[in-house]
Each structure stands twice: as C-alpha cells, then as structure tokens.
Design brief:
By secondary structure, this protein is an alpha/beta fold. The protein has 10 helices and 9 strands.
Length: about 270
C-alpha cells in the first residue's frame, strides 16, 4: 500500500512480510519465505521502487489493524494469528504493536503443539530446524500434510474443503484433527497471555465452522479449561472461553495493515 503523498513528494510503501526485521541489523529473520532471510529487503525494495519502503511482520500488522478499527476494536490486548501457508502471531496492546527488543514477541507458530499424542510426537521438521512447531500442524500447509498422511494423496486445502462440504468422511476427520490442534495451540497461548480478543487471519481463518467448533476442544484442553472445571461449584456455571473471532477486513486486510505501517520516517 502506498500512502497518499503530499504534493511533489513520493508516497511511502508499507509492506507486511512473513518474517521480522532485526532491529539490530535491519536484515530479515524468522521468515517462512526463507529466500529473504538475511537480506536487507527494505533497502532492496526501496532501491527498486525509487521510494521509501517500510517493512513489518504481517501478523503484527494484522494485530494493530484489527485493534484499531477491526474485529478487536476497543480491546486492550489483541493477539492476531495468521493461518496461511505458514503460521504467525502478533500482539497489540492499547492499539500499539508489542514486538519486543528482539522483534519476536508473538511468534506463536514456533512454540510446540501442546499435549501431543504418541502419534503426533515429535512432529515434522519445521523450516526453522526444530520439530513440533505449531506452524507444521495448524498452517494451511499443515492441514494439507495431515490429509496426505491419512490418505497418501496430496491435494490443495481448497479441494479438501470442497470434499468436506460434500460430506467426505476423511475430509471431516482431517478437519476435526485440525480444529483440535488449533484449540490446543490457542489454549497454550491463553495460559501465558490471556488476550482480550484473539483474531484469526489468513486463508484457513475463512473456514466458518472453526468458530463454532473451537469452544468445545478449548474447554477440554490444558489449564484453560480443566482447572476451571475442577474447581468446586463451577460445574454448573457457564465457563468463559477465549474470544476467538475472524478478521474484520476480508481481502482488504493486507492493504489496511500495510497502510497503517507506511508512515514516512521523520526528516532529520
């Protein structure tokens, strides 16, 4: 997105990327598009476009955008998760990104899947070099991997969803496995951050049934639910569950996020 420039001044370009820019070196790190790791991508793009470029983590962009005027508007702490080819997370507190001194706050995709079954352990190898990262389970790629594991056949996520809508039993089983894993990831997040709102973005976030089916697994997962259910007198009460909502910007999401980032740096 290019901010509207003042007269006789080139506009600034804001871009959300699936990675972070090191505050120490200015180089890209932690990107699932591994070819940009170690590059001064901001400088490369600025040189190619002939104008100022500002880069930011796409999940951080999502978090601040949704906290300002999206699905998390009015909430103090918004955690945003991108469920696409990869899996990222970002935190906004009082409508401002909290990235941390290393620019890795919210990297939810690289904590391990909680409460793994023997069949899941130790998990597939992630591009980061570790095993068991949430990204390998709950990204769109992880969704496709699970279908391939169960059937021996590799098809796209779109085709799996089409089969699901047609009542295919295997697709239903794969989807239920995905929802359970996503719930475990969210429960882990709630245990240490407990955000007011958790906003989902990315291609997998557009599957509407996720929002109806998540509360059940969340209540049965880890400290989030079991500690409440085991407390005396709570069995007959309504148990609060993390508020999980869909992004508010649809296909305009990335444009809105990057526009908020594309503020020209003050002139010295």
């Amino acid at each position: 997105m290019i901010l509207k420039p003042k007269k006789n001044q080139k506009g600034t370009v804001g871009i959300g990327i699936p990675g972070a820019v090191s505050p120490q070196t200015g180089l890209v790190k932690n990107a699932n598009s591994t070819w940009i790791i170690g590059r001064d991508f901001e400088h490369d793009l600025a040189t190619a476009l002939g104008r100022e470029v500002r880069l930011a983590n796409d999940a951080n962009c999502l978090a601040v955008s949704e906290s300002v005027d999206g699905a998390g508007a009015g909430a103090k702490v918004v955690f945003a998760i991108i469920l696409g080819t990869g899996c990222g997370g970002g935190i906004a507190i009082d409508q401002k990104v909290h990235a941390g001194p290393l620019s890795i706050a919210g990297e939810w995709g690289h904590i391990t899947l909680g409460w793994m079954s023997p069949e899941e352990y130790p998990g597939e190898e992630c591009y980061c070099g570790k095993r068991g990262c949430l990204e390998t389970f709950v990204s769109g790629t992880g969704f496709e991997n699970e279908y391939e594991r169960q059937t021996g056949n590799r098809i796209s996520g779109h085709k799996i969803i089409k089969l699901l809508e047609e009542g295919d039993d295997t697709a239903e089983k794969v989807m239920r496995t995905y929802e359970n894993r996503l719930a475990r990831g969210i429960a882990t997040l709630a245990n240490f951050l407990d955000p007011d709102v958790l906003v989902l973005g990315g291609g997998m976030s557009n599957i509407s049934r996720i929002y109806q089916n998540l509360p059940g697994p969340l209540l049965l997962t880890g400290y989030l639910g079991m500690s409440l259910l085991h407390q005396s007198g709570l069995q007959d009460m309504e148990i609060p569950v993390v508020s999980v909502v869909q992004h508010g910007f649809g296909n305009q999401l990335s444009l809105d996020c990057s526009a908020k980032k594309a503020k020209p740096k003050p002139r010295k």
